Amino acid sequence: IEETAYQNDKLAMLGKISAAIAHEIRNPLTAIRGFIQLLKPHLVQLGKDEYAQIILSEIDRANDIIYEFLNSSKPSTPQKSVISVASLLKEVVLLTESEALMKGCEISIKEVAPQMSIAVDVKQIKQVLLNMIKNAMEAIEEVGNEHSGQIEVKAELEEKYVNISIRDNGKGMDKAMLAKLFSPFFTTKEKGTGLGLSVSYRIIKNHRGTIFADSIKGVGTIFVISLPLAT
Ligand code: ADP
Ligand code: MG
User: Fold this and answer.
1) More exposed terminus of the chain, fewer Cβ within 10 Å: N or C?
2) Is this entry keyworded Nucleotide-binding (predicted)?
């Protein structure tokens, strides 16, 4: 419990800092982006169009990171509406399918018990599921090319809860890593923020749900998100 309080403090502080500076960084980034776009034809003429590409994609990445930091700070009262689990999962999978294809992995909805609905902040829960799927794709990517990646999404009924699971056959984790998984800033990625799972954890907790992970190194990982059904 103390650990959790400490982590919430860290996230709250991070939120204040990022809210204060995000605006100040975003404006110059927007200006830079605009001018690079104006310069692009000249760079193309010089045969340096890949420079423009790199600059633009790095600016976009910086913006994404700012966005992720900002999101971790948002006050956490969910704006709830009732949504069917089946349609939520379909939407999320649709959003990730093209990226999955590019990364050589297949994402499929395995089974969804019919007629389950949850009362949730749809934007927040989508963000959680997208975080999970993104991590799964990255874990598959890290295994290498010859590997045929599989991501399976399921939703099963358990009493008054729905258990949404995301399973991948990516690189997996050992027990030590599993233990640190939800800590803010824990990342093993060169370009990671280590915020995806800590923010997801907080969102699910605010929905009176639970989130659980299990993994075997070299085999794969499963995340199970448990949310109360709408009454
Ligand atoms: P980030 O993705 O920015 O590193 P996250 O909070 O999303 O931050 O994840 C934290 C760490 O947990 C990752 O760096 C990775 O090492 C590990 N991880 C998360 N999901 C998976 C997964 N599906 N398979 C293997 N490792 C994972
Ligand atoms: Mg992540």
Assistant:
1) N
2) yes
152 lines ligand 1 (CB under 6 A): no
Residue 21: how many CB atoms within 10 A of its CB? Answer: 12
Is-contact 120 78, C-beta < 8 A? yes
Q: What is the ipTM of this complex?
A: 0.99
Chain segment 66-90, per-residue pLDDT in tens:
877 777 666 567 789 999 999 999 9
Cβ–ligand 1 contact at 171 (below 6 Å): yes
What pTM, to 2 d.p., does this model score? 0.80
Torsion angle of the four alpha carbons 4, 184, 132, 116, in this order, in degrees rounded to the nearest 10 = 30
169: its two tokens:
């056959």
Is 59 in contact with 29 (CB distance < 8 Å)? yes
188 lines ligand 1 (CB under 6 A): yes
